[in-house]
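Render NACHT domain-containing protein in 3D.
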Amino acid sequence: MDSSSTVEEACWEEAVDIFNEKLTNDKEKIIPRGSWKNATQPCDGLEELIRANREAYRKTFDTRRPRFKRLGEALQTVHKFAPVFDVMVQQQSFIAVLVWGPMRFVIQLLAAESRAGPEIWQGLERIASSVPRLLHGLKLYAKFPGVVKATAAIFAKAICFLVNARAFLDKPPIRRAFNAVPNSKLDRCLNELEKEEEILAQEIRAANGQAQAELQRDHNALVTSVSLEFAKQGAFRAGWFTLREARHSLIHENVNVVAKALPQMCLDASAVDDAQRRARGCDSISAWLQENSTKAEIAAEREPGTCEWVHRSAEYNRWVQTQNQGVLWIQGKAGQSKDHFGISFGELNAAGCGKSVLATYLAACASTDVVLTHFFYCSRRRTLAATAYFAVSLLSQLLSKYEIQRSDRFPFFIEKASPLVSHFNSGLECPADMLLAVLDDALTLVSSFTLIVDALDECTDPEDCDRILGYLGDLGSRSNTQVILLTRAGKFRQNVFTNAILISMEGSVVESDIRLFVEGKIERNGVSNPGLLKVKPHIASKISSCSQGMFLLARLVMDDIKTAGTVSEIRVRLDKAPTALDDYYQRNMEETARKLHERDKITRHSIFLLLIGGPLTPEDISTTLALNTKTHCVDEDELFSNPTREVLRLCEPLVTIVKGQVQFVHTSAKDFLLKFVVAQEDSDAFLARKCLSKLSQSQYRLRSYPARLLRMNLLAGVALEVGLEPTTKESIPYRYACLHWQDHVTALRNPSDELLAMLSRFLLGNEFVTWSETLFQIKSRSTIGSQIQVQSDVREWFGRLPDETKEKIPINSFFVRAHESLSNEFMREGEDIILPYLPLIRLGQYFNVGGKTNADFQKAYQYKMTVAEGFEAALGTRSPLTLRAKTEFFKEFFFQKRFDEAERGFEEVARIQQEVVSEDVPDIFITLQLLGLAQICVTKFQQAISTLTEAADGFRRLSGDKYFLTLQTELFRGQALERGRSLREAYDVYDNTLKLWIPIGGPAHPFSLMLKTAFGSVCRKLGCFAEAEEALLGSLTARKRLFTTENVTYVDSVLQLAALYYENERGKDGLEYLGLVQDSAGLKDEFERECQEKHIRALINLEAGFYTKPKTVLQRLLDEASGQGRNKNNRELLWVRITLADVLRQRGKYDEALMVFSDLVSPRLAELPVQAGSEDAVGYKFPSSLVDEPEPPAQLTIAERALRLLRDAKQDDAELLLQENGLKWKRQKDFWVLQGGPITDTASMSGLKAFGFKIIDHPSAPDDGTTHSSHEQEDHQDSDHSHLDVCYKGWVARIDHKM
């Protein structure tokens, strides 16, 4: 045993001695010395005590936790009003006092016991979490007796608490209730534990001081020793050399001592830092998971004797014998579940049976230490049936487990999950597939676990169901898992799992459990109603038969007959007992209706309409019903005096209240209402009116409200935001309306005129801007995309409406009119010089991101120009806001292809920002990123690499490697490297960026697709065709789902793939993909992309042996960009020239080939003279007289050579060649690079693949996407493509150069 273990053992011995001698007088509680000797570690005895207490706690409280929790809440409520009853009883008779006194005493006892459980559990968790920290402290301060003694005192107090807690938990319920009232011993233990921890902290501080003092003494001694040595040197000069060697030896020895101790000191400090980082990371992820989420769980108390049949079943034992391989799938009827369907508090806590009760029972009996549960219940909240809630719920449970936090791989899990925390507002907003991947990583941290999923059949989204079923099937096939699924029978196909064991809850099994349940309930209610006991066999038999295997129906019938006053009434109610849930709900609806006034019936109907949308608090129901949809005001006279009581009075037994939320007692109750009472259309119409009315309340229409929100959202990071009032948290109904108004509106097939008028006013008023800005705050990391998605949903709904209805909706004014109107209002009032421009900023963003036409993008340009000019006039050129607005404005130059102006603009903005803007905000790096992108467009690739590297480093310093802007900048840097032919480095940049981003954004995110396309492009150039095809096909498939064929990014994906297939000698496949976009507007509207499509198609046809038509197509492209169409010249046509020249030379047309390179260069207007006889002369070989000359062959030859150098990314060599010959490029714009998805780079593939290919002019070329003239068609009448395969095999022949 090492020294640290010895210290631990001594500390533990002292703790046990303290406990035995000072903290207990009970001999049964004394711990024998040496009882821990067989343990691996001395303090394993403490962990054993903790584990035993946890097990005792679970046996005492966990299986009864729901009942005790609800009972405790009720008793606390009664106890709170007990003084009132005390006063009432004081004036009553002696008999009343005698009755109330014992009742109050019992309430006091039971309430105290309900409080004791959580306090004990908190104490257990506190001690368990402290043990690793204390043991680590012992290792660090083993040589300091004060620390060891203080730690032993803490262990002693912990033992005292654990021993007394176990004694308390092991007592019978009655003794436990009496002991819970004066529960001072446990409280005293915890208080003393806290004091001892303070003493330990003082001892550690003292130990640190002592260690520092020792180091100082050693240092002083060393200094003194050195001083003595120097004194001796003066006295004994003869021994100077010897003394010097001794001094050096001493110094060297001290250095070695320090050097040996330093790594351990660093390791110890690193271990502490690592533990702190681990705790912070765990807390951050836990908070992120809990935000906006509701733990989807239900706890059900079972009737004694029920559910035990499952362990006796042959199927269950077969599953156990196969070591739990596959999913254990338990199926039952609808209604074989328990979902808070009692009417009173006592009934809610009554024991039950059914699928959910069975799920709880199986969780309690699980053989693994880690047990995870999830229960789907759409009747409570629609979103509870989502995959995200499933993953978030399980992750939250996992992170609370001690085993997972103790794992060596836990820091890696934290590191992997942290980027999601920074990228998404909450766990529920994270893509489902990514959440499941994180859950998978978390599950690998536990050695084994049991997962129990109940009521998956209530998940209404087929995609969610399929995803979760697939995930469960995968988990069930693993060796360390036990997966149990409970659903209704017939909901899913039986072969959904490849390896599942099915247990059916039917026949005698169900009837036996129902009979046990009914008999148990009769026994419990027999005291208050003896008539139940008299006809007990008849009741059990009747309910077992009429319930038809549905536990819910059995419970409801039992709840009905237990209130019968006579045996005859019991028999009558049994005879009338319904045999279906719908019959029961209908009968109760009718009985309740007979007791209600007509106004109450209308109110009840309105409550049902609200609850169809999801659970609400009683107060929210009251406020929403009182909201007048004509005046948009809450009528105070219409508010419920007691919302909870009124909702239950009107709507029981179909609804209940759980955790403050009004919800349907069971999914079948909601289904019944939708089937017989209300229509989904009516619910959506009602909720749509209420949502629009809430959004249109007077305070949201005042200009001051959206003004405040615009300032808060748009002026972040600048000095102007100082002094703004903080954002007020909106009410829950308003938040709901913000998030869901469009859901209810777009669900309507026949909206009323009243609703259409409300919608029209909302879309055009200030309240719309308030909604939009509130949405930015609710989704704090979202962009304008949320509003654009709403617009898209509304437009899609608008398209389905009749023409006469469409006329009443100002759909073309969506977003625009409200913001323009508010801007004009701000301008008229003149309250703030910048306020009028804030709505215009939003309009610029709206058209930039959501624009679909050139007119839309032009609007974005105009709005952003107005904002930039306005800010400059109001705030000056050097204001951070002005600079930010100019950056946004210059972004629009990309769309207009004014890349050189954009470059100059960004350079100027960046220069000023470096002087006036702090590097602690991202403004300067955003500008640098855009500057680098502009430099790529104007082919300044090396400058772009430098600029983008600086921007990426800045983003990385501010927010880390996985920040979106960091990764986006890395994508642009990769593009600059690729264009500069640093292909291997570009490959590494794309690959690394993909590895960092995919776990955050998922494989189908638009940015992921951009990265994959860029990666495929560089793989093609490197000859890694398999990797390229995988990346490009994946990107194209995803873009096909996200966009139409008109989208330019989709077009770019097709062109990238066609280029790959040409280079990989799979031209036929390339032509098939080009056919997908042949008629695309994204191709026709952009001449350069049309040139790319025709160029790639021509290359494929040329390789197949065709000549005339491909050559004609290429020549026409050049003709279209000459003369009056000269402005249509573009980068792609440069490479078309090279291909066409190669083709012409193959046919011996050398003069025609040379003429292809005309109109590319021109003589320089001013030249430096050549110094005769000077080797360092600066000048040009061609004299300036060439300015007025037509292009001679020599000039065309130089133009071709320079262009081929550019094709090979040798820009400097090309420029030098032109300079040496007194020439320059006519139009730099011809070389500019367009932005896209990214746009295909065909430079490297232009021209023929080798001069050794001979083109045989076959009678017919395959589909080239062009229409030929009549004389061309006469030369090539044959349009049959059946010989295409032969073409690719035999029409390209290699000719030996020696021939």
